[in-house]
Design brief:
Chain B: One of its GO terms (molecular function) is ABC-type transporter activity. The complex is a heterodimer of chains A (457) and B (250). Chain A is α/β, with parallel strands linked by helices and 457 residues long. Chain A contains eleven helices and 18 strands. Helix content of chain A is 33%, strand content 20%. Chain B has one domain. Chain B contains eleven helices and one strand, in the order ααααααααααβα. The chains are: A alpha/beta (457), B mainly alpha (250).
Chain lengths: 457, 250
């Protein structure tokens, strides 16, 4: 072949073109491989994948779900969150994940009320939920709550010096109200003297520490609301029943006189003796998921006089080292065994349930029972104390449970098959000695022999 | 013909002390890492026992071992692949090979398979360590298999890139350094992930280590496997083309 300059240049051009085409084809194939992919989890018990329950839950969702993770750029937390969220993304590709560095977006942190690094915000159809624990169970349950909740109205009674769900004073519930609204709930103030009836679209009625007594007519309205099957959250501070003695009687609850004093709080550096710590919880849906303790300043104890058709469960109990103090909280105080003071553990809150006659008020088909919670303290949700440990979570759980939003996915942990390693002495010796000394020595020796033999030749 | 070239390549490798000493050094390093991971596991096992979703031996000992193996072989693979074509071209034996009635594709595939054979021997040697633990526990075999598959694909990719680099130059050391540079670049390319969403996605895809990591976790994804296969194919075709260009008179 006669090789001229021309043919050489042509050949080179051909080569470049070929390379270009090759890379384009490879790029296309690579792109296609990310679009049509088969993913399987080879680990024992499919530990990298979601459980069937979570997958079913994701299949129910229509439209996109947004997960905002408040995590700093560096550190293991980010990988942990990415890994967890990745499992969800593999099942539902239209999940939008956004990582926000809380240091760089302080105004978003404030606006969304993010309380700790690693918090996830899950938004779906204008509603949102927060998760602080990075487990599939926690995240799936948050998705469940955000997906299932319809339009829910939470009515806060006003007109008698109650804690205001929009107020900013220390004793008000402004932060709690804001948190409820972020969840997508409708928070509404309710003055019975004006409306003259409890609206029938209310999911939960909240009576938060009335300072003045309710008028007899108002008490009657509350009772009628209860009799008709309404859900109620009643926060009653010591010394005040708001004139609702008849309601208490109807529920079969009695408030013990005095304030609960908790001797163990001093260990935690809390000065005032009337702050009650609750560290252990009942398996009730409200408290089941709580991990941290809750804190109740200036609370009163409840006693059950169960009579009617209510099923009552204690919701929160104080610790052993507590009693109801009848005297003033000054100087040295202690439990007086001879008096009316009652020793702990004392009940701080009760949960009442009652199944309703089918067909009466349960017209919407979703409400099957009536739920009431009575708590001997209103301060734990107030602006000054809401941020303490798990108080906010307890409050949100209470509202969720009262408004019948308490479906729960329990995900069975899937453990690795090889959690113990038991090697015999010989096995240990072979593994330790063999791999570290014998095998490398043999290999190097073989190299040496090869080298010597080649040198001789 | 491919088989003959591959066998000759493998034999040449084992006739040099280099391959033996590499095997010895790699074995020593990995055994040390392996034993210290076992020690770590023994320390933490009692604390982990009661926890839900607790990790096991495979997660604590084997996965990190295989991950470290990837890094160590990133440093060492270029030393094995450097001579493959460059030394032949320096000692003029490449011209002989080229003038023989063998196609370029056969030469490249033969060389590649010979080198791959060496790495498979290395891989078998490394797998002995995790497998030895079966004496004392029930390993998560699925995760182990996926990790070993990932390591095999990673080594095959290293080999292809090293072979290509070796075809570019007559100097084995230059080939070693440049293939190490190329592999390291592809290893860390996803670190520059903060420049725009689209670009960082591409860089993440190109990174050698991303795909390995997901296989190490026990997550088999066809796109990870396809990535390595495409990687190998690309470098082999480029090598063939490079040799073809050499055959042409200049």
């Amino acid at each position: 072949m006669d090789v001229t300059r021309q043919t050489k240049r042509n050949l080179r051009l051909q080569r470049y073109l070929f390379t270009l085409l090759l890379l384009a084809a490879v790029g296309l194939l690579g792109w296609l491989s990310t679009q049509y992919r088969i993913q399987t989890d080879w680990t024992y018990g499919a530990r990298n994948s979601l459980s069937a329950d979570s997958e079913r839950l994701l299949a129910e969702l229509e439209g996109p779900l947004t997960i905002t993770a408040f995590v700093r750029d560096q550190g293991p937390l980010r990988d942990q969150v990415r890994e967890l969220v990745g499992r969800y993304e593999r099942v539902k590709p239209d999940i939008q994940v956004e990582f926000v560095n809380p240091d760089r977006a302080p105004e978003r942190v404030r606006e969304l009320g993010v309380s700790m690094e690693g918090e996830l915000r899950i938004a779906y159809q204008g509603r949102s939920e927060r998760v602080q624990e990075h487990t599939e169970q926690a995240l799936s349950n948050a998705i469940l709550r955000v997906a299932r909740q319809g339009e829910r109205w939470i009515g806060f009674l006003t007109g008698h010096g109650e804690r205001d769900p929009h107020g900013q004073a220390n004793h008000d519930l402004g932060h709690f109200g804001a948190e409820l609204e972020r969840k997508g709930l409708k928070v509404q103030s309710l003055n019975l003297a004006e409306t003259r009836a409890v609206p029938d679209n209310l999911s939960v009625l909240v009576i938060a520490s009335p300072q003045l007594d309710l008028l007899p007519g108002e008490v009657r309205l509350v009772r009628e609301y209860l009799e008709a099957g309404g859900n109620l959250l009643w926060l009653a501070d010591p010394g005040e029943t708001g004139g609702m003695a008849s309601v208490a009687e109807y529920l079969g609850v009695e408030f013990l006189p005095g304030v609960i004093v908790d001797a163990s709080t001093q260990l935690f550096g809390i000065e005032s003796p009337d702050v009650v710590l609750v560290t252990a919880y009942t398996p009730h849906p409200v408290t089941r998921e709580l991990r941290a303790m809750t804190l109740f300043p200036h609370a009163q104890a409840l006693q059950l006089n169960t009579t009617g058709d209510w099923d009552v469960e204690p919701l929160l109990s104080s610790m052993e080292n507590t009693w109801t103090e009848l005297g003033t909280l000054e100087g040295r105080i202690g439990f007086d065994a001879g008096s009316d003071e009652r020793a702990g553990p004392l009940d701080l809150a009760h949960a009442f349930t009652r199944s309703l006659d089918a067909g009466s008020e349960a017209g919407e088909g979703r409400t099957t029972g009536q739920r009431v919670a009575v708590i001997g303290d209103g301060d734990f949700l107030s602006n000054s104390f809401l941020g303490n440990v798990a108080n906010l979570d307890l409050g949100l759980n209470l509202i969720d449970w009262l408004s019948h939003d308490d479906s729960f996915i329990a995900i069975r942990p899937r453990a690795a098959p090889d959690q113990s390693l038991e090697l015999g002495r010989t096995a240990q010796a072979v593994i330790g000695f063999g791999f570290l000394f014998v095998l490398p020595a043999l290999l190097v020796l073989a190299g040496l022999i090869v080298w010597l033999r080649r040198r001789k030749r | 013909m491919i088989r003959v070239i591959a066998a000759r390549e493998l034999k040449t490798l084992f006739l040099s002390p280099l391959a033996w000493s590499i095997l010895g050094v790699v074995q020593l390093l990995l055994a040390y890492l392996f034993l210290s991971q076992i020690d770590l596991f023994m320390t933490y096992a009692p604390q982990l026992a009661g926890r839900p979703n607790a990790p096991g031996v495979t997660d604590i000992v084997i996965t990190p071992l295989l991950g470290n193996t990837g890094v160590i072989l990133l440093l060492i693979a270029p030393l094995i692949t450097m001579r493959a074509l460059s030394e032949e071209s320096r000692s003029r034996t490449l011209n002989l090979l080229m003038s023989s009635p063998v196609s370029m594709t056969e030469i490249v595939l033969g060389k590649y398979l010979g080198l791959l054979g060496f790495f498979l021997i290395l891989l078998a040697m490394i797998s002995l360590m995790p497998l030895s633990l079966m004496a004392g526990t029930e390993l998560d075999t699925g995760k182990l298999a996926s990790g070993l598959l990932g390591l095999a694909l990673l080594l095959a990719a290293f080999t292809a890139a090293g072979l290509f680099m070796s075809s570019l130059t007559d100097q084995p050391t230059v080939a070693a350094v440049s293939s190490f540079g190329l592999l390291l670049l592809l290893w860390i390319i996803d670190w520059a992930g903060n420049s725009g969403a689209g670009v960082s996605e591409l860089f993440r895809y190109l990174s050698l280590v991303r795909h390995y990591e997901s296989l190490l976790k026990g997550l088999f994804d066809s796109s990870d496997v396809v990535y390595y296969l495409l990687f190998i194919l690309t470098f082999l075709v480029l090598t063939v083309q490079r040799l073809d260009a050499r055959r042409m008179p200049h």
